[in-house]
Amino acid sequence: MAKTPRYFDDLDGGLGGPAQTQCSECRTVFRVTREQLEAAEGLVRCGECGNVFNAGAALLREPYLAPENPQENLDLTFDTHADTRPRTRFFLPEVDSATRRPSAGPGKALWVSLGVILAVLLLIQLVYLFRDSLALVPGMRGPLVAFCESTGCTISPRRDLQKLALINRNVYSHPNVPGALIISATIVNNASFTQQYPVLAVSMANVRGTTLAQRNFDPRDYLPLADVEAGMTPGAPVSIALQVADPGSDAMTFELDFR
Q1: For the chain, how many helices (H) and strands (E)?
Q2: Is 0.70 surpassed by the pTM of this model?
Protein backbone atom coordinates (compact mmCIF):
# COMPACT_ATOMS: atom_id res chain seq x y z
CA MET A 1 0.00 0.00 0.00
CA ALA A 2 1.43 3.34 -1.06
CA LYS A 3 2.15 5.89 1.63
CA THR A 4 0.71 9.35 1.48
CA PRO A 5 3.19 12.25 1.36
CA ARG A 6 4.64 13.18 4.73
CA TYR A 7 3.43 16.78 4.32
CA PHE A 8 -0.21 15.61 4.28
CA ASP A 9 -0.44 16.24 8.03
CA ASP A 10 0.76 19.81 7.50
CA LEU A 11 -2.01 20.42 4.98
CA ASP A 12 -4.88 19.02 7.02
CA GLY A 13 -3.57 20.22 10.37
CA GLY A 14 -2.84 16.68 11.49
CA LEU A 15 -6.54 16.13 12.20
CA GLY A 16 -7.14 13.68 9.36
CA GLY A 17 -9.44 16.14 7.59
CA PRO A 18 -9.61 16.63 3.82
CA ALA A 19 -6.81 18.23 1.84
CA GLN A 20 -6.87 19.52 -1.73
CA THR A 21 -5.28 18.08 -4.86
CA GLN A 22 -5.28 19.42 -8.42
CA CYS A 23 -5.75 17.52 -11.70
CA SER A 24 -2.57 17.70 -13.80
CA GLU A 25 -4.61 17.89 -17.00
CA CYS A 26 -7.56 20.28 -16.52
CA ARG A 27 -6.30 21.92 -13.27
CA THR A 28 -9.57 21.24 -11.43
CA VAL A 29 -9.19 21.21 -7.62
CA PHE A 30 -10.69 18.35 -5.58
CA ARG A 31 -10.90 17.47 -1.88
CA VAL A 32 -9.38 14.22 -0.80
CA THR A 33 -8.69 12.49 2.53
CA ARG A 34 -5.77 10.40 3.68
CA GLU A 35 -7.99 7.29 3.79
CA GLN A 36 -9.07 7.77 0.18
CA LEU A 37 -5.51 8.12 -1.02
CA GLU A 38 -4.35 5.07 0.86
CA ALA A 39 -7.27 3.02 -0.49
CA ALA A 40 -6.45 3.99 -4.07
CA GLU A 41 -2.67 3.83 -3.63
CA GLY A 42 -2.50 7.50 -4.51
CA LEU A 43 -4.08 7.19 -7.99
CA VAL A 44 -7.33 8.97 -8.77
CA ARG A 45 -9.42 9.72 -11.86
CA CYS A 46 -10.47 13.31 -12.46
CA GLY A 47 -14.25 13.70 -12.42
CA GLU A 48 -14.01 16.52 -14.98
CA CYS A 49 -11.73 15.24 -17.76
CA GLY A 50 -11.13 11.59 -16.85
CA ASN A 51 -7.38 12.08 -16.41
CA VAL A 52 -5.67 9.62 -14.03
CA PHE A 53 -3.00 11.20 -11.84
CA ASN A 54 -1.19 10.80 -8.52
CA ALA A 55 -3.30 12.85 -6.14
CA GLY A 56 -0.81 12.49 -3.30
CA ALA A 57 1.96 14.05 -5.35
CA ALA A 58 -0.39 16.81 -6.53
CA LEU A 59 -1.57 17.98 -3.09
CA LEU A 60 -1.81 21.78 -2.87
CA ARG A 61 0.50 23.35 -0.31
CA GLU A 62 -1.65 26.47 -0.34
CA PRO A 63 -5.22 25.17 -0.50
CA TYR A 64 -7.67 26.95 -2.76
CA LEU A 65 -10.91 27.99 -1.00
CA ALA A 66 -14.12 28.29 -2.98
CA PRO A 67 -16.64 31.05 -2.10
CA GLU A 68 -19.07 30.66 0.82
CA ASN A 69 -18.29 27.48 2.78
CA PRO A 70 -16.34 24.83 0.79
CA GLN A 71 -16.95 22.26 3.54
CA GLU A 72 -20.70 22.42 2.79
CA ASN A 73 -20.48 22.60 -1.02
CA LEU A 74 -18.43 19.54 -1.89
CA ASP A 75 -20.47 18.76 -5.01
CA LEU A 76 -20.69 22.30 -6.39
CA THR A 77 -18.60 23.50 -9.34
CA PHE A 78 -17.93 27.20 -9.03
CA ASP A 79 -18.22 28.78 -12.51
CA THR A 80 -17.94 32.38 -11.24
CA HIS A 81 -14.14 32.26 -11.62
CA ALA A 82 -12.25 32.94 -14.84
CA ASP A 83 -11.19 29.91 -16.89
CA THR A 84 -7.65 30.19 -15.58
CA ARG A 85 -8.80 29.82 -11.96
CA PRO A 86 -9.08 26.34 -10.44
CA ARG A 87 -12.50 24.87 -9.71
CA THR A 88 -13.47 22.87 -6.65
CA ARG A 89 -15.42 19.65 -6.93
CA PHE A 90 -15.76 16.57 -4.78
CA PHE A 91 -14.81 13.23 -6.31
CA LEU A 92 -14.01 9.67 -5.26
CA PRO A 93 -10.52 8.27 -5.91
CA GLU A 94 -9.86 5.61 -8.55
CA VAL A 95 -9.57 2.29 -6.73
CA ASP A 96 -9.60 -0.21 -9.65
CA SER A 97 -6.01 -0.50 -10.82
CA ALA A 98 -7.18 -2.03 -14.11
CA THR A 99 -8.74 1.30 -15.11
CA ARG A 100 -6.03 3.65 -13.93
CA ARG A 101 -5.45 4.89 -17.49
CA PRO A 102 -8.45 6.29 -19.38
CA SER A 103 -9.37 4.38 -22.50
CA ALA A 104 -9.73 6.15 -25.84
CA GLY A 105 -12.79 4.00 -26.52
CA PRO A 106 -14.03 2.76 -29.90
CA GLY A 107 -15.05 6.20 -31.13
CA LYS A 108 -11.55 7.41 -31.98
CA ALA A 109 -10.64 4.18 -33.77
CA LEU A 110 -13.85 4.41 -35.81
CA TRP A 111 -13.09 7.96 -36.96
CA VAL A 112 -9.53 7.01 -37.85
CA SER A 113 -10.79 4.06 -39.90
CA LEU A 114 -13.31 6.26 -41.72
CA GLY A 115 -10.60 8.81 -42.46
CA VAL A 116 -8.36 6.13 -43.96
CA ILE A 117 -11.20 4.77 -46.10
CA LEU A 118 -12.07 8.25 -47.42
CA ALA A 119 -8.41 8.95 -48.21
CA VAL A 120 -8.13 5.70 -50.19
CA LEU A 121 -11.34 6.44 -52.12
CA LEU A 122 -10.08 9.93 -52.95
CA LEU A 123 -6.76 8.50 -54.17
CA ILE A 124 -8.56 5.97 -56.40
CA GLN A 125 -10.71 8.75 -57.87
CA LEU A 126 -7.66 10.92 -58.63
CA VAL A 127 -5.85 8.01 -60.28
CA TYR A 128 -8.93 7.31 -62.42
CA LEU A 129 -9.29 10.94 -63.53
CA PHE A 130 -5.61 11.52 -64.33
CA ARG A 131 -4.69 8.01 -65.51
CA ASP A 132 -3.61 9.11 -69.00
CA SER A 133 -1.24 11.76 -67.63
CA LEU A 134 0.09 9.41 -64.95
CA ALA A 135 0.73 6.76 -67.60
CA LEU A 136 3.39 9.04 -69.11
CA VAL A 137 5.43 8.91 -65.89
CA PRO A 138 8.20 6.29 -66.18
CA GLY A 139 7.29 3.12 -64.34
CA MET A 140 3.62 4.05 -63.86
CA ARG A 141 2.05 2.64 -67.01
CA GLY A 142 2.27 -1.02 -65.93
CA PRO A 143 0.50 -0.51 -62.57
CA LEU A 144 -2.10 1.73 -64.24
CA VAL A 145 -2.84 -0.92 -66.87
CA ALA A 146 -3.41 -3.44 -64.06
CA PHE A 147 -5.59 -0.87 -62.27
CA CYS A 148 -7.77 -0.37 -65.35
CA GLU A 149 -8.07 -4.12 -65.92
CA SER A 150 -9.62 -4.44 -62.46
CA THR A 151 -11.83 -1.34 -62.67
CA GLY A 152 -12.90 -1.48 -66.32
CA CYS A 153 -11.28 1.79 -67.42
CA THR A 154 -8.95 2.30 -70.37
CA ILE A 155 -5.67 4.13 -70.86
CA SER A 156 -4.95 6.03 -74.05
CA PRO A 157 -2.02 4.66 -76.06
CA ARG A 158 1.26 6.46 -75.66
CA ARG A 159 1.91 9.21 -78.19
CA ASP A 160 4.96 11.14 -79.32
CA LEU A 161 4.37 12.86 -82.65
CA GLN A 162 7.98 14.03 -82.71
CA LYS A 163 9.02 10.39 -83.12
CA LEU A 164 6.92 9.92 -86.29
CA ALA A 165 8.91 10.40 -89.47
CA LEU A 166 7.74 10.91 -93.05
CA ILE A 167 10.14 8.84 -95.19
CA ASN A 168 8.75 9.83 -98.60
CA ARG A 169 5.68 11.41 -100.12
CA ASN A 170 4.30 11.93 -103.60
CA VAL A 171 1.19 13.31 -105.34
CA TYR A 172 0.04 12.47 -108.88
CA SER A 173 -3.12 12.35 -110.99
CA HIS A 174 -5.36 9.35 -110.49
CA PRO A 175 -4.92 7.04 -113.51
CA ASN A 176 -8.55 5.89 -113.58
CA VAL A 177 -10.60 8.71 -111.98
CA PRO A 178 -10.72 12.07 -113.77
CA GLY A 179 -10.32 15.13 -111.49
CA ALA A 180 -8.76 13.08 -108.67
CA LEU A 181 -5.28 12.89 -107.17
CA ILE A 182 -3.43 10.14 -105.33
CA ILE A 183 -1.19 11.05 -102.41
CA SER A 184 1.23 8.34 -101.39
CA ALA A 185 3.53 8.40 -98.37
CA THR A 186 5.51 6.19 -96.03
CA ILE A 187 5.68 6.90 -92.30
CA VAL A 188 7.64 5.18 -89.56
CA ASN A 189 7.47 5.17 -85.78
CA ASN A 190 10.94 5.92 -84.39
CA ALA A 191 9.83 5.74 -80.77
CA SER A 192 10.87 2.87 -78.53
CA PHE A 193 7.23 1.99 -77.88
CA THR A 194 4.14 1.21 -79.92
CA GLN A 195 2.00 4.27 -80.40
CA GLN A 196 -1.34 4.95 -82.03
CA TYR A 197 -1.63 5.96 -85.65
CA PRO A 198 -1.84 9.73 -86.13
CA VAL A 199 -4.40 11.85 -87.88
CA LEU A 200 -2.98 12.97 -91.24
CA ALA A 201 -3.57 16.63 -92.07
CA VAL A 202 -3.29 17.24 -95.86
CA SER A 203 -3.36 20.74 -97.33
CA MET A 204 -2.72 22.14 -100.82
CA ALA A 205 -1.76 25.73 -101.65
CA ASN A 206 -0.91 27.89 -104.64
CA VAL A 207 2.39 29.60 -105.33
CA ARG A 208 1.42 32.50 -103.05
CA GLY A 209 0.86 30.12 -100.12
CA THR A 210 -2.89 30.50 -100.14
CA THR A 211 -4.58 27.28 -99.02
CA LEU A 212 -6.84 25.89 -101.71
CA ALA A 213 -7.90 22.62 -100.06
CA GLN A 214 -7.35 20.83 -96.76
CA ARG A 215 -8.64 17.77 -94.96
CA ASN A 216 -7.86 15.59 -91.94
CA PHE A 217 -7.73 11.82 -92.42
CA ASP A 218 -8.31 9.45 -89.51
CA PRO A 219 -6.31 6.19 -89.40
CA ARG A 220 -9.30 4.21 -90.67
CA ASP A 221 -9.48 6.54 -93.69
CA TYR A 222 -5.95 5.87 -94.91
CA LEU A 223 -5.61 2.30 -93.54
CA PRO A 224 -9.08 0.77 -93.99
CA LEU A 225 -7.81 -2.82 -93.97
CA ALA A 226 -5.28 -2.54 -91.13
CA ASP A 227 -5.75 -3.19 -87.43
CA VAL A 228 -5.33 0.41 -86.40
CA GLU A 229 -6.13 -0.42 -82.77
CA ALA A 230 -2.88 -2.39 -82.55
CA GLY A 231 -0.90 0.81 -83.12
CA MET A 232 2.35 1.50 -84.94
CA THR A 233 5.17 -0.92 -84.19
CA PRO A 234 8.53 0.78 -83.57
CA GLY A 235 10.74 0.87 -86.67
CA ALA A 236 8.17 -0.67 -89.05
CA PRO A 237 7.43 1.50 -92.16
CA VAL A 238 3.77 2.02 -93.01
CA SER A 239 2.76 2.84 -96.60
CA ILE A 240 -0.40 4.81 -97.19
CA ALA A 241 -2.33 6.03 -100.25
CA LEU A 242 -5.02 8.70 -100.27
CA GLN A 243 -7.45 9.64 -103.03
CA VAL A 244 -8.42 13.32 -103.01
CA ALA A 245 -10.19 15.71 -105.37
CA ASP A 246 -7.92 17.74 -107.63
CA PRO A 247 -8.19 21.42 -106.51
CA GLY A 248 -7.06 22.57 -109.96
CA SER A 249 -3.94 23.69 -111.74
CA ASP A 250 -3.33 26.45 -109.19
CA ALA A 251 -2.42 23.87 -106.54
CA MET A 252 1.36 23.83 -106.70
CA THR A 253 2.36 22.57 -103.23
CA PHE A 254 0.98 20.18 -100.63
CA GLU A 255 1.77 19.53 -96.97
CA LEU A 256 1.26 16.45 -94.84
CA ASP A 257 1.36 16.83 -91.06
CA PHE A 258 0.71 14.53 -88.11
CA ARG A 259 -1.93 15.37 -85.51
Answers
A1: 6, 11
A2: no
The span from the CA of 50 to the CA of 103, in Å, is 9
Closest CA to 29 of 15, 16, 14, 44: 44
- Say how many residues make up the chain: 259
Distance set, CA 210 to CA 163, 242, 246, 254 (Å): 29, 22, 16, 11
Number of other residues whose CB lies within 10 A of the CB of residue 205: 18
Q: Which domains does the chain have, with CATH numbers?
A: 8-99 (no CATH), 105-151 (no CATH), 161-258 (2.60.40)
Strands of the chain, DSSP E: 19-22, 29-32, 43-45, 52-54, 88-90, 164-173, 180-189, 200-205, 211-217, 238-245, 253-258
Query: What does the pLDDT look like over 103-149, one tens digit per residue?
Result: 555 678 889 999 999 999 999 888 888 888 787 787 887 888 888 88
